Automatic annotation (TrEMBL):
Its EC number is 2.1.2.11. This is 3-methyl-2-oxobutanoate hydroxymethyltransferase. 3-methyl-2-oxobutanoate binds at residues 51-52, 90, 120. It comes from the Bacteria. One of its GO terms (molecular function) is 3-methyl-2-oxobutanoate hydroxymethyltransferase activity. The active site is at residue 189. CDD domains: KPHMT-like. Catalyzes the reversible reaction in which hydroxymethyl group from 5,10-methylenetetrahydrofolate is transferred onto alpha-ketoisovalerate to form ketopantoate. Pathway: Cofactor biosynthesis; (R)-pantothenate biosynthesis; (R)-pantoate from 3-methyl-2-oxobutanoate: step 1/2. Homodecamer; pentamer of dimers. Its cofactor is Mg(2+).
């Protein structure tokens, strides 16, 4: 029996089952083949090709500049490295907001050209039509509520969302709408833990939290933050599992030193 047969692919149905059983769902971002391979082999259920690539891969201040072509490029690379996890790809800013036909075209391009398994869209009732249109083409959709980084200029801040009753009620209504139209899950970003738990209990689909407390069905972090490659970003919700910034810096310093002193390459390392 080949190894491939033993690897059971995670599907949207798998995530639904995990929620039903009360088992937590582990998710991380990835943007390239090498990283995706490691993240997938380590056992996460969902890999998000996030538009956070705009920040961590391209150095932009916000997620707004990244294009659909950029996202497809990153997703193609990730999909090649993944054998098990469900790969969800962000629809970038401007590729779905105002026009449900454009939203469908964008989603189809991602699915066809990258081989990703699903798309993620930010927002609630205002993008309902786009979500429904994408779903009607048989493309799985993940929602994203709370802090929606693509709306940074509307909010003017990356602060916690839905602390006021009115916004909390709106978020709850949007969550129920995402569930009812047929999304397979949703990300809840930077909202009070009590509200996130309430949302999680009120919907049938899995909720994935980032800065939304422990009551969600799963958690997600940006892989570069979690590994400490990015060391200038320290929000309260981030737990660093390694300090790769220090390790990588030291490795490059030592390499440079060895090259300068003619220590590298040695006779053994030469042909």
């Amino acid at each position: 029996m080949s190894v491939h047969n033993e690897i059971k692919r995670v599907t949207t149905h798998t995530l639904q089952e995990l929620k039903r059983k009360g088992e937590k769902i582990a998710c991380l971002t990835s943007y390239d083949y090498s990283m995706a391979k490691i993240v997938d082999a380590a056992g996460v259920e969902l890999i998000l090709v996030g538009d956070s690539a705009s920040n961590v891969m391209a150095g932009y201040e916000t997620t707004l500049p990244i294009t659909l072509d950029n996202m497809i490029y990153h997703a193609q690379a990730v999909v090649k490295g993944v054998k098990r996890a469900l790969v969800v790809v962000d629809l970038p800013f401007g590729s779905y907001q105002g026009n449900s036909e454009e939203a469908l075209r964008s989603a189809i391009r991602i699915m066809k050209e990258s081989g990703g398994h699903a798309v993620k869209l930010e927002g609630g009732i205002e993008i309902k039509e786009s979500i429904e249109r994408i779903l009607s083409a048989g493309i799985p959709v993940m929602g994203h509520l709370g802090l929606t980084p693509q709306s940074i200029y509307k909010f003017g801040t990356y602060a916690v969302r839905a602390k006021e009753d009115e916004e909390a009620e709106q978020l709850m209504a949007n969550a129920k709408m995402l569930d009812e139209v047929g999304c397979f899950g949703m990300v809840l970003e930077k909202i009070p833990a009590i509200l996130a738990k309430k949302v999680t209990e009120s919907v049938n689909i899995p909720t994935i939290g980032i800065g939304a407390g422990n009551g969600c069905d799963g958690q997600i972090l940006v892989v570069h933050d979690m590994l400490g490659i990015n060391n200038d970003f320290s929000p309260r919700f981030l737990r660093r599992y390694a300090d790769l910034h220090a390790i990588m810096t030291e490795a490059v310093i030592n390499y440079t030193k060895d090259v300068k002193s003619s220590d590298f390459p040695s006779t053994k390392e030469s042909y």
